[in-house]
Amino acid sequence: MKIRLALLLSLSLATAAHAEEDSVAEVWTAKCKSCHGPDGRAQTQMGKKEAIVDMSQPAWQQAQTDADIREAIADGSPRNKKMKAYKDKLTPQQIDALVAYIRGMKKG
Questions:
Q1: At what angle do helices 92-103 and 2-27 cross, to 10 degrees?
Q2: Cys-Cys crosslink for 46: which of 18, 35, 89, 105, Cβ 3.0 to 4.6 Å?
Q3: What is the dihedral of CA 77, 21, 36, 44, to 10 degrees?
Q4: Total domains in the fold of the chain
Q5: Percent share of the chain, pLDDT over 70
Q6: Residue 102 · residue 69 · CB < 8 Å
Q7: Where is the signal peptide (predicted)?
């Protein structure tokens, strides 16, 4: 019985982690992808028009702290006023998940 319970618990945790991963990808697609592209490179019409930085570049990844990225998502970008503030649209957990998602875009 204990083995069955442990197995069930581990499966539910794995499912929850997968659901969270799907959720952040869905948030990225809904809120970020149109400008930043599917991979953070900003090779979209809007990304090129607004000269949005390539977030997959190691130099950008190194220059930005998690707090910097979190602030840009929450409060919008001071560099580009078209980057909306999402603090009233996303939960702190969703913003943290997006920071991790962006960190996963790093090249090489």
A1: 80
A2: 35
A3: -160
A4: 1
A5: 79
A6: yes
A7: 1-19
